[in-house]
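Researcher: Next entry in the queue.
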Amino acid sequence: MRVTLVGMGCTGSDLLPEAEEAIARAELIVGAGRLVYALPSTTVETVVAVRAQEVATLLRHSRARRSVVVLSGDVGFFSGATGLLPLLEKDGHIVHLVPGISSVQLFAARLGRPWQKWVLDSAHGRDCDVIGLLRTGRPVFLLTSGAQTVRAICGELVDAGLGACHVTVAENLGYADERIREDTAEAMAAGEYDSLNVMLIEMPHDLLARRRTPGLPDEAFVRGDVPMTKQEVRACALAKLGITPHAVCWDVGAGTGSVSVELALVAREVWAIERDPEAVALVRENHQRLRTWNLHVVEGTAPEALADLPRPDAVFVGGSAGRLERILDAALEANPFVRICVAAIALQTLEQAATWMDEHGFDPEVTQIAVSRTHKTGGLRLFKANNPVFLIVGQRVKEAPVGDAGA
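Model: Structure for this entry, 407 residues:
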C-alpha cells in the first residue's frame, strides 16, 4: 500500500497542492475526528483513528491501495507521524510525507517575529523541563494541552522565583475566535484559557544565571559563619560525580549551598537538604544571588527529609551529623545505581564512608585534596594550607546505563 502522511496545519485546513492531490486519489482516509470532518465532502471511506498502533493495524488489514493519514500541524514537529512512520515501514508500506504549517510558524507570523532562534518543545502530555529550557537565555515555544497546562507552567515559574518571565499565549490559532494575550507568568498563572493553545516564554536577562565551568570563586558566595566547601573541592566533586544536564542531584548537608549552586548550574534539578536555620537562609540567599532557579531548598534533617524527594542520579554528602550510613542507605534505596560522593575531613568519616561503599558493592575511589593558597605577610607571599579533604566516590557496576550521573 502507498500511504501518505499529510500535515493539515494547526487549523486542519492548510493543505499543500501535493496533499490535496493525495487526498483526491486516496481510497481510504484516516485521522482524528476534527481533521477528517474538516476535509471537503468525499465518497472515499473515512475512518476516525488517532493512536499510532490503531492506525497501523487498520491499514494492515485494509484492501485499499492508496491511503492518507491526516495529522494536525506539521508531520515533523511533535507529530503523530513520529510513532506511526516506523510501524508503517515495518509493515512494508510505501510511505510519503507531506508537511503542513505548524503552530510555531503561524504564531511567529502573528507576532511579526522570526523564530529560528527559539527553543521548541512540547508540554502536550509529556514531561517538559521548562526552567532548564529557559536557562539557555532564548525564547521558549511550547505546544501545550488544555487550559490547565498553561496555568501549571506559569505556576511552576512563579514557585521557582521566575514570576517576572514574559509569557505570550495564543488560543485557537487560525480560527475565527483566535486570541493572543501576553503578561508576566505571575499574572498569567490565574488566567482562563481555551483548550487549543500554545505559549512563548521569555526570561528577563537580569534573571539569567552566569553559567561557566565548575569552580566558582569562593567570593561569589555569601558565607556567614557556616562552613563552606572551597572552590577546588567543589570543582573536583562535580568532576567525580560526572554531572550531566539531565541529572537530578541531592546535596545533603548543604551548608552555604556552594555545592548545590555549582550542581544547579550543570544539572537539571538539585535538592539542597540542610537542618541548620542559619545555613538554610544562606542557601536561599546564594540561590537567589546566583540565579539557580532549578535549585530546591529543603529544611530538615536527613535521612527523614529525603523521603519524598525525586529519584537522584547523583548524591553529594557534605555533612551528615553522625547519620552518614542512614543517609547513604536512603540514597541507595531511592536509586540502586546512584553515584555518591562523600566529602570528609575526619579520618573516621573517611573510614565509615569507604566501609559502607565496600559492603554495598560501590568499589570506592578515595581522592585527597590538599590545597594551599598564597597570602601576604608583610612584604612576603607565603602559602597557607587548607585542611585536607577526602572525596569518597562510588557507584555500583551495572550492565546498562541507569540515570544520568555517568560512570
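Model: The chain has a mean pLDDT of 92.
Researcher: Noted, moving on.
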